[in-house]
Amino acid sequence: MRKVCSWCKIELGTVPCEPFSKSSITYGICDECLNTYFGPQQIGFLDFIDSLNAPVVVIDGTGSVSSANIKARVLLQKELPHIEGFKGGDVFECAFARLPGGCGETIHCDACTIRNAVMETFLTGKSHLKTPAYLLHGVFDDNHEIRFLISTEKVKDVVLLRIDEVDGSRAAQVASPEG
């Protein structure tokens, strides 16, 4: 399987293919991009993630959101003060996050694909690519299901959660301020 830097698209070599993998490419980050975007002379992180063409949410090891790019903020219909420091389920308005215990602490959280992908990536460094996921949006007794394709990547001490599709629509189009 080819490994490509997800930031600059340079070839990083090959890695063993996982059984039953339908993808011929996996993604990582090259040393140059790591130093440019996350090193001591880094460009503004928010400026960088705002330049990405898909919604990206930055999540720490506790499951709390530390930032989100403009496309994610448009998709979520929230500004940074209503995103930063909140648990992912609260930011995405998961119905189960409103139950006693909150996001990450209910019986439903054990089966949450979004949470599990983010936490696995944080703990192991293993990225996920276009993984099907869903959540119940709203309150527990008045909600609707939203389906996603998500990708995760660990960069230093955070995980970047990219929303590739929402309910079958490309998320970059959904989140575009122009429509």
Question: What general outline do the C-alpha atoms trace?
Answer: globular
Tally of distinct domains: 2
Strand content: 25-35%
Number of strands: 9
> In which range does the helix fraction lie?
10-25%
Q: Roughly what is the average pLDDT, rounded to an integer? A: 82
Instruction: Look at the structure and give the CATH class of the largest domain.
Output: Alpha Beta
Radius of gyration: 16 Å
Describe this structure in words.
The protein is α+β, with helices and mostly antiparallel strands and 179 residues long. The chain folds into 2 domains: 1-43, no CATH class; 45-174, PAS domain (Beta-Lactamase, 2-Layer Sandwich). Helices cover 23% and strands 32% of the residues. The chain contains 6 helices and 9 strands, in the order βββααββαααββββα. It has helices at 31-38, 45-50, 70-76, 88-91, 113-124, 171-174, and strands spanning 2-5, 11-14, 25-28, 56-59, 65-68, 128-139, 142-155, 158-166, 169-170. Strands 4, 5, 6, 7, 8 and 9 form a 6-stranded antiparallel beta sheet that branches. Strands 2-1-3 form a 3-stranded mixed beta sheet, with no helix packed on it. The radius of gyration is 16 Å and the shape is globular. The mean pLDDT is 82.
Secondary-structure topology with pairs:
Blueprint: E1 2-5, E2 11-14, E3 25-28, H1 31-38, H2 45-50, E4 56-59, E5 65-68, H3 70-76, H4 88-91, H5 113-124, E6 128-139, E7 142-155, E8 158-166, E9 169-170, H6 171-174
Parallel strand pairs: 1-3
Antiparallel strand pairs: 1-2, 4-5, 4-8, 6-7, 7-8, 8-9
